[in-house]
């Protein structure tokens, strides 16, 4: 949530608490009761969606992915050095061009590109393993590289999924806050017109001052809250 939404939610919860604590002032008035029920439901949905948004932060997943990419790049580059030396000695320009990539490039490539490049390096290592036996391209090294490639793939897609969930939650919050404000605007008029309990109206007015808006029932403009 942004700061404006947090301010609004504080006010929403103050209004909700007031209604819950003083039911006798309003539960016999059907329009007010209906509006409050709708408002209370929206506030509950906002809190649940905000929690889901918080749980969907991608920063941790991105950091994990970056660390994994560094490890993957080092494994792949170890094989690149062996294959490149073999390619130069045997004048194999096709092989050299296919695997000629720097460590820094592997560390900083977009994830789909680094996966593709590392897979090429692995395939070339497997293809030339026998011919380049003197360069110590072992089964273990090839297996470790393939395992690192396979392990890296889900990290990006998982982060993207989390990012999609965050976007959906954020959009959902915007919609819910809009609906809550519309419902509260109706409730303002209904409380002013239909509630006869002066203490309740006074408390309602105070609850509505907790955010940056005019307190319509009192008819006075309030200073914006930070």
From TrEMBL:
Superkingdom field: Bacteria
The protein, known as: Uncharacterized protein
């Amino acid at each position: 949530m942004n700061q404006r939404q947090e301010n609004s939610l504080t006010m929403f919860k103050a209004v909700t608490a007031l209604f819950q604590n003083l039911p006798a002032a309003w539960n016999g008035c059907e329009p007010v009761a209906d509006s409050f029920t709708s408002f209370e439901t929206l506030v509950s949905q906002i809190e649940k969606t905000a929690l889901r948004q918080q749980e969907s932060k991608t920063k941790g997943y991105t950091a994990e992915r970056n660390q994994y990419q560094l490890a993957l790049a080092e494994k792949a580059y170890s094989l690149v050095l062996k294959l490149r030396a073999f390619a130069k000695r045997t004048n194999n320009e096709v092989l050299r061009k296919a695997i000629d990539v720097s460590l820094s490039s592997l560390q900083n490539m977009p994830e789909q590109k680094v996966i593709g490049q590392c897979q090429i390096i692995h395939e070339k290592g497997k293809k030339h393993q026998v011919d380049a036996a003197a360069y110590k391209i072992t089964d273990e090294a090839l297996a470790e590289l393939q395992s690192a490639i396979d392990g890296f793939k889900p990290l990006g897609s998982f982060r993207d999924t989390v990012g999609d969930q965050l976007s959906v939650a954020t959009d959902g919050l915007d919609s819910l806050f809009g609906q809550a404000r519309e419902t509260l605007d109706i409730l303002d008029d209904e409380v002013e017109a239909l509630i006869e309990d002066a203490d309740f109206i006074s408390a309602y007015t105070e609850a509505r001052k907790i955010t940056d808006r005019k307190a319509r029932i009192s008819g006075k403009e309030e200073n914006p809250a930070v």
